[in-house]
From TrEMBL:
This is Carbamoyl-phosphate synthase large subunit. It comes from Sphingobacterium psychroaquaticum. SUPFAM superfamilies: Carbamoyl phosphate synthetase, large subunit connection domain (SSF48108), Glutathione synthetase ATP-binding domain-like (SSF56059), PreATP-grasp domain (SSF52440). GO terms for biological process: glutamine metabolic process; L-arginine biosynthetic process; pyrimidine nucleotide biosynthetic process. The keyword Lipid biosynthesis does not apply. Composed of two chains; the small (or glutamine) chain promotes the hydrolysis of glutamine to ammonia, which is used by the large (or ammonia) chain to synthesize carbamoyl phosphate. Tetramer of heterodimers (alpha,beta)4. SMART domains: CPSase_L_D3, GARS_A. GO terms for molecular function: ATP binding; carbamoyl-phosphate synthase (ammonia) activity; carbamoyl-phosphate synthase (glutamine-hydrolyzing) activity; metal ion binding.
């Protein structure tokens, strides 16, 4: 049937700030759903407290409410807008829980609002562990033996009845929070208490642990006619026991028999139909016994899930977009395939390639954290790679991780200690995939690795083959590698850097030149949802090594935007926001906007955002060949954080134009030593400093500038490796640790200004004029990373004299660095003296916050200036903030209860929220002021 014409206005509930377990995949889903509804002429309102996302941008919705995710906020919106329906399925568990709470308070009924996309009763069935288990039994779907417990005594009785090992699953929690495995009776009491406290209903499921079984996820869509399709089947490389968000996953399933798949498919459809009459998306997780393919259901989520974004990017089927249309009444056969534009959306995508997702961890930010993976998700982001084979996609995913790996090993970073390797295989952490390869290199038999990891033999055989190829390669020199063998290496995903390392006496550039001589070039294949059965209209590409290239280069003038890769602490969704606005600005200026990125969670990798999307690693070899193919006017590196910036030097060396501020000037700001020299020349105050390349040199510098000192490496993001030390002994340890993890890096030793306030400015410069976007005052003092500090826009207690100095220094630095585009500067303020700590001539994590607070599209303005299309005087910039905006950092320490939560110069927050106040007497604001006073007095 056609859409429900009684729905003219929809409220979409977002997921709030980024936390581990609920990240920007919901920003992607919410944005896609909003645009889908707007296509139908429906007015869209969004509530979300996250300022860093595209979802809370006016290009996405008609009305954006940057409010706390509470029932009070919901009621405010319902009073201000005539809302016909609420869509709570795009904001993860946070949105669903808020929808239930509002329903229980009678808000939807009071304001005559329909809940669409989900049945509220279905949420109860799926989140209540006992209700879910009983429902599965009723419909004939297998489940693990389990018992519900609402008290400590009930939990003990359940454990005694079921036996060990056990898994504890709290009800109504996200990303496995509070859950875990219990292998021994002695550990049960503590685990049970943790689970009961984590559940908002004080309820846990004590369940048989099917450790070592295989895990699969299915993404489904259903319409009002009860038609159900399976969009994607995702297989976990890691067996049961590791949270799916922390597992390497593969699509389509590689080791699934057709009989088992058909059975699983039928069970998933039966499960979806059993939990209500809603139309929309659904995620189902199964476990499969590798011995006999017995299937049991793990859980069902009647909403867009964390995996929906991955499945959308993997298949080219925009799940959230179609789910939103189904929620307003359309049926699948009435909708168009978004890729082919000629076939129906009522089909199941066919893949003629392989997808591999690898999670990205940030254990370095949580010193002392337990790195062993289990039921509680610990990853902060993820990458996705596309290849013609599993092993090609796996190597490309390893190159995408931003962990200085050139692929799966073959880069000099392997483990050599057999005991350490076997320990890693039995107790998985984020590096286990690399240690499997290391074990093969040391000659560990495949069966021993399989027993230690319980990973399916098929996957292990693929990795073992790499070791055989590398042994073969070492027989050759670069000039006599047979062309067919060279082609095989590239088809198996080997980067030129890996081949260079394996040969031992040649550079990466020499390998690159040699394969070009042999005519071994990357070609680009289209993601088309139908294995080329129908022509695709959407330019969405991945690379491989074959004969036919499907990426046809146009004769338009082009701009490449380099993305920011996987989310991690210090470089998150705010850079993706910047990249999307950069794409939109380039298109508005008449350029063909080309995106290169590998993050499946983000809006920048939505195939509708760029004129051309290359879903490829932001890794030099891949970027270089795309640029050689497309021959753009230039490349924008300013918007993609450190990932994009670090390629500026290589781009410059090849004569490729960098749009905006030049590499030389960006490098001047990044090089802490040269930058301090510039400040001296400009007569801008800065902390006394020195540069060291060894512990001995550092001691000399520290004693000259005076303790306490801030120790930091050059060219880092998110405060990586920064520490404050107060004596020679601590300094020596800090410098030795830095040089061990960042060999060859210069170490900057700054005198630390204790009892100093911190503030920052963001500005845009067009080469002549400078516009201060915003100045912020931090609540936390200097010494705590700006990303971990609450920041108030505009300043509330900095004197007029201090603010004038901040503005004066911002203008001076923008002109001295010949900035064309964005500039972020951080200041320390002490006794009315203003010191510059650092300057970053690029998009910062605060620009989206300022843009939302002032309601000005600053990234678009900056991009048009970078492109040389406009000057500042061309824009009529009107700020709309009444009162103050506050950026609040959000942490995920609950995932790492064992770590020190003390904040310092290294960033630890995973996300942020925005709050507006109109009166400095606001109780919340007065608490912040008191907190700031306490910090400054206590230092």
């Amino acid at each position: 049937m056609p859409r429900n014409t009684s729905i003219n206005s929809v409220l979409i509930i977002g997921s709030g700030p980024i936390v581990i377990g609920q990240a920007c995949e919901f920003d992607y889903s919410g944005s896609q759903a909003a645009l889908s509804l707007k296509e139908e002429g429906i007015k869209v309102s969004i509530i979300n407290s996250n300022p860093a996302t595209i979802m809370t941008d006016k290009v996405i919705a008609d009305h954006v409410y940057l409010l706390p995710l509470t029932c009070e906020s919901i009621e405010q919106i319902l009073q201000e807008q005539q809302i016909d329906a609420v869509l709570p399925t795009m904001g993860g568990q946070t949105a669903l829980n808020l929808c239930i709470e509002a329903s229980e308070l009678g808000l939807w009924e009071k304001y005559n609002v329909k809940v669409i996309g989900v049945d509220v009763a279905a949420i109860e069935k799926t989140e209540n562990r006992e209700a879910f288990r009983q429902l599965m039994v009723d419909i004939g779907v297998g489940v693990a033996t389990s018992k519900i417990a609402n008290s400590f005594l009930e939990g003990k009785e359940a454990a005694q009845e079921i036996g060990y090992p056990l898994v504890i699953r709290p009800s109504y929690t996200l990303a496995g929070t509070g859950g875990g495995f219990v292998h021994r009776k002695e550990d049960f009491d503590a685990a049970l208490n943790r689970g009961l406290h984590a559940s908002p209903t004080h309820e846990v499921l004590v369940e048989q642990a099917v450790l070592g079984w295989k895990e699969f996820e299915l993404e489904l869509l259903r319409d009002t006619n009860d038609n159900v399709i399976i969009i994607c089947t995702i297989e976990n490389f890691d067996p049961m026991g590791i949270h799916t968000g922390d597992s390497i996953t593969v699509a389509p399933g590689m080791t699934l028999s057709d009989k088992c798949y058909q059975d699983m498919r039928n069970q998933a459809i039966r499960m979806m139909r059993s939990i209500g009459t809603f139309a929309g998306g659904c995620n189902v997780q199964f476990s499969v016994n590798p011995e006999n393919e017995e299937i049991i259901a793990i859980e069902i989520n009647p909403r867009v899930s964390r995996s929906s974004a991955l499945a959308s990017k993997a298949t080219g089927y925009p799940i959230a977009k179609i789910a939103a249309k189904l929620a307003i009444g359309y049926n699948l056969d009435e909708l168009q395939n978004q890729i082919t534009k000629t076939t129906s959306a009522y089909f199941e995508p066919t893949l003629d390639y392989v997808i591999v997702k690898i999670p990205r961890f940030n254990f370095d930010k949580f010193k002392g954290a337990n790195k062993e993976l289990g039921l509680q998700m610990k990853a902060v982001g993820e990458v996705m790679a596309i290849g013609r084979t599993f092993i090609e996609a796996l190597q490309k995913a390893c190159q995408s991780l931003e962990t200085n790996r050139w692929g799966l090993g073959a880069d000099g970073r392997q483990l050599r200690n057999l005991e350490d390797i076997m320990e890693s295989l039995e107790h998985p952490s984020g590096d286990r995939i690399f240690h499997i390869k290391d074990a093969f290199e040391l000659g560990v038999p495949l069966e021993s690795i399989r027993k230690a990891t319980l990973i399916d033999k098929w996957f292990l055989v693929q990795i073992q083959e790499l070791v055989h190829l590398e042994t073969e390669l070492r027989r050759y020199q670069l000039n006599n590698i047979p062309r067919d063998f060279f082609m095989t290496l590239k088809q198996k995903g080997y980067s030129d850097a890996q081949i260079s390392w394996l040969l031992g006496n040649v550079s990466e550039d020499e390998v690159y030149d040699r394969r070009k001589e042999l005519g071994i070039n990357r070609v680009y294949k289209m993601v088309d949802t139908c294995a080329a059965e129908f022509p695709a209209q959407t330019p969405y590409y991945y690379s491989t090594f074959e004969d036919e290239n499907e990426s046809i280069v146009s004769d338009k003038k082009k701009i490449v935007v380099l993305g920011s890769g996987p989310n991690r602490i210090g470089q998150g969704i705010e850079f993706d926001y910047s990249c999307v606005h950069g794409l939109l600005a380039a298109k508005e200026c008449g350029y063909e906007a080309i995106m290169i990125n590998c993050n499946p969670e983000t809006v920048s990798t939505d195939f509708n955002m760029a004129d051309k999307l290359y879903f490829e690693p932001v890794f030099w070899e891949h970027v270089r060949e795309i640029i050689e193919l497309e021959k753009p006017e230039g490349v924008i590196v300013q918007l993609g954080g450190q990932t994009a910036l670090k390629m500026a030097k290589q781009l410059e060396a090849l004569g490729i134009k960098i749009i905006g501020t030049s590499f030389e000037n960006m490098d001047l700001a990044e090089d802490r030593g040269r930058f301090s020299d510039l400040l001296k020349d400009l007569d801008i105050p800065y902390p006394q400093y020195g540069v060291a390349t060894s512990a001995e040199e550092a001691l000399v510098v520290a004693n000259r500038v005076g303790y306490p000192v801030l120790v930091r490496p050059s060219y880092v993001l998110g405060g990586q490796g920064m520490s404050i030390v107060i004596n020679d002994e601590d300094l020596e340890k800090a410098v030795v640790n830095l040089l061990k993890t960042l060999p060859g890096n210069q170490i900057l030793i700054d005198h630390f200004l204790d009892r100093a306030e911190e503030s920052e400015s963001d500005s845009i410069c067009d080469g002549d004029d400078v516009h201060i976007i915003g100045m912020m005052e931090h609540i936390e003092p200097a010494g705590i990373h700006s990303g971990d500090s609450s920041a108030v826009l505009p300043p509330f207690s900095l004197s007029e004299n201090v603010q004038k100095k901040m503005e004066e220094y911002s203008v001076k630095l923008a002109k001295a660095l010949n900035v064309k585009g964005l500039l972020n500067i951080q200041f320390a303020v002490k006794d009315e003296n203003v010191f510059v700590i650092e300057a970053n001539p690029r998009a910062s994590r605060t620009v989206p916050f300022i843009a939302k607070a002032y309601d000005v599209p600053y990234i678009k303005i900056a991009t048009k200036i970078m492109l040389g299309e406009n000057k500042l005087k061309d824009f009529n910039i009107e700020r709309k903030l009444t009162g103050w905006a506050i950026k609040e950092p959000v942490f995920s320490f609950s995932k790492f209860p064992e770590v020190d939560k003390q904040l310092g110069p290294e960033m630890k927050s995973t996300g942020e929220a925005i709050r507006f106040i109109k009166d400095l007497h606001d109780p919340y604001f007065r608490e912040l002021v008191a907190k700031k006073s306490m910090f400054l007095n206590a230092q």
